[in-house]
Amino acid sequence: EDQVTQSPEALRLQEGESSSLNCSYTVSGLRGLFWYRQDPGKGPEFLFTLYSAGEEKEKERLKATLTKKESFLHITAPKPEDSATYLCALAGYGSNSGYALNFGKGTSLLVTP
Amino acid sequence: DAGVTQSPTHLIKTRGQHVTLRCSPISGHKSVSWYQQVLGQGPQFIFQYYEKEERGRGNFPDRFSARQFPNYSSELNVNALLLGDSALYLCASSLAATGELFFGEGSRLTVL
After folding, report:
1. Hey, is the C-beta of A1 within 8 angstroms of any chain B C-beta?
2. Which residues contact A1 (CB under 8 A, 6 or more apart)?
3. Chain B partners of A107 at a C-beta cutoff of 8 Å?
4. pLDDT tens, position by position, for chain B (112 residues)?
5. Phi and psi (nearest 5°) for A104?
6. How far is B103 from chain A (nearest CA, A)?
7. Which CATH number fits domain A3-112: 3.40.50.11690, 3.30.1490.100, 2.60.40.10, 3.90.230.10?
C-alpha cells in the first residue's frame, strides 16, 4: 500500500533561518509527488509536482527535490509569511482510484520575526 | 478569475440526517475531486470526476455519493450522517484528471 510520512510534525524557525521538511514515501509506481501549502481555514494551494528521482523545482524561497524514497522541501531565508502547513502528496499507479492524491499529515511551520 | 467556490461554507447537522455539498470549478476545468480533511490530518480522497464520469473512488462507505453536472459543477451527498463525518470537505478542480489541483476553501460540516 502506498504510504506518505512527513517530518517533523511541527517546526519553528526564526526569520532567515533556513531548513528542510521531509516527506518519505513508498509506492509501487510513482505517478507524481506533490507539495501543497495550506493556511489555517483555507484549502491547500498547489506548489510543485515532481515526477522522477533527481528532479528539482524552485519557487521564490522554496525548492523541492526528489529521490526514490524521499522528497525534501527546502526553505531558504524564510519570512513570517511562509508560516503555514506544508503537505506532501503522492499519486501512484496500480490502483483504480483515478488520479487520487494520498496526503501526508503535514508539517506545521511557524516563522517568527 | 473566480477560483473554486463551495457552498455552504459551514453547516451543522444531527446524526442520521443527509447533507448535500456543492462545488463550482474554475472556468475551463473539467475535473472535480472531493477530499475529506479531519482536524490535524491531511486531506483524504473521496471521489474524482472527469467529463461527468466517475474516475476514482476512495475508501469511503456507500453513504457517500457524488455526481458532476454538464456544466462541470459537482455535488457531494452524504446520507445517514455519523459523528465521525464531522470534517472539512474540500472540492478541487483541474484542467484534466491530474494531481495539480486547485482547492476551494471547503465546507465545514459539524455533526451533533
Report:
1. no
2. none
3. none
4. 689 999 999 999 999 999 999 999 999 999 999 999 999 999 999 999 999 999 999 999 999 999 999 999 999 999 999 999 999 999 999 998 888 999 999 999 999 9
5. -80, 180
6. 5
7. 2.60.40.10
